[in-house]
Amino acid sequence: MEHNAKKGLEGTGLELPVNRHGNLTSASSDQNHLQILHDIKSSNIPAVINYGASWCRVCSQILPAFCQLSNNFPKLSFVYADIDECPESTQHIRYTPTFHFYRDGERVDEMFGAGEERLHDRLWLHS
Fold first, then answer.
1. Which residues participate in catalysis according to the annotation?
2. By its UniProt entry, which SUPFAM superfamilies does this protein fall under (predicted)?
């Protein structure tokens, strides 16, 4: 991989909606991902992590909606984690996309696959 290659959301090469609330981030390395998880667990801010991959067609289809939804749910923290950029800390992810939902520092729900309406409903439920 190129040393200065773009990672995270920028590395997808997709045209994604602009986040207006500063509540959308990317985990671009194992260390970064583990720090984000620590922050989620210690802050008690509701959060959703989207585990995807640049080669995953379904991930590419849901990612623009994920970014757009971050504007609709400003109190939630949205994180995109590419499993190839965080290979050690995402070994437990068996399917992409996988969404993990956190509330009060605990993982409370999981969703596999795409589905903008399903994702919206889960976000609404956990916000």
1. 56, 59
2. Thioredoxin-like
